[in-house]
Amino acid sequence: MNRKYMHLYAQMADRIEQGEFPEGSLLPSESELMEAYTYSRDTVRKSLNLLESQGYITRVKGKGSVVLGLSRYDFSVSNLISFRELSRHMELPTKTRVINLALEEGPSHIREKLRMEPKDRLWFIARSREIGGKRIILDKDYLNDRFVPMLNTAVCENSLYEYLEKELGLKISFAHKEVVVEHSTEEDRQNLDLDQYDLLVVVRSLVYLQDGEIFQYSESRHRPDRFRFVDFARRIH
């Protein structure tokens, strides 16, 4: 079995980890790697594909293989944790900027997801999350005003969940989450420091209260090089 591509992958991964190719730099081209290692184009491409799937590089059309940063923050898919709670475990400074806060009728498909009554209105919150001086998350939240009658910018800049639980007494219980990869939009490009990245990791959540009521729909759009989504899985016998 041809394992040359694994050998090349291991060598290139080690060189990236040792800092020979810093974040944002380009790896040698396919042709250069073929010449340096006397490997076929197919072998080199397999190695580069594996480096990309393991988060070392991203392939940019017309540019080449761009090295990604190795510092990533773990997001648990199976737990409900706020950005404020996550930021307490980070070494870099964090900041939340409220882009929009409005009480509105809201999109019909969101109202349907939240099982809203005709008289209910939606709080819409758009926030950018900055870590180490880079805006790398765009959060968009919709909350039913039947459960959240009052919101202000100060609450949204700090801990929304702390306000909901401690001030409003909501019993937040669980969420149904969907994780997908999507191309960035114009809104993303305006509110995030995407650099060369065109793809985002998008987490959509329906959040439930203890009594089974759905009170929140959220869409969290992440720059892909800074996050690793983790989960715990148990085999069922």
From TrEMBL:
<keyword id="KW-0238">DNA-binding</keyword>
<keyword id="KW-0678">Repressor</keyword>
<dbReference type="InterPro" id="IPR036388">
    <property type="entry name" value="WH-like_DNA-bd_sf"/>
</dbReference>
<dbReference type="Pfam" id="PF00392">
    <property type="entry name" value="GntR"/>
</dbReference>
<dbReference type="InterPro" id="IPR028978">
    <property type="entry name" value="Chorismate_lyase_/UTRA_dom_sf"/>
</dbReference>
<dbReference type="GO" id="GO:0003677">
    <property type="term" value="F:DNA binding"/>
</dbReference>
<dbReference type="InterPro" id="IPR012770">
    <property type="entry name" value="TreR"/>
</dbReference>
<dbReference type="Pfam" id="PF07702">
    <property type="entry name" value="UTRA"/>
</dbReference>
<dbReference type="InterPro" id="IPR011663">
    <property type="entry name" value="UTRA"/>
</dbReference>
<keyword id="KW-0804">Transcription</keyword>
<protein>
    <recommendedName>
        <fullName>Trehalose operon repressor</fullName>
    </recommendedName>
</protein>
<dbReference type="InterPro" id="IPR000524">
    <property type="entry name" value="Tscrpt_reg_HTH_GntR"/>
</dbReference>
<dbReference type="InterPro" id="IPR036390">
    <property type="entry name" value="WH_DNA-bd_sf"/>
</dbReference>
<keyword id="KW-0805">Transcription regulation</keyword>
<dbReference type="InterPro" id="IPR050679">
    <property type="entry name" value="Bact_HTH_transcr_reg"/>
</dbReference>
<feature type="domain" description="HTH gntR-type">
    <location>
        <begin position="2"/>
        <end position="70"/>
    </location>
</feature>
<dbReference type="GO" id="GO:0045892">
    <property type="term" value="P:negative regulation of DNA-templated transcription"/>
</dbReference>
<dbReference type="GO" id="GO:0003700">
    <property type="term" value="F:DNA-binding transcription factor activity"/>
</dbReference>
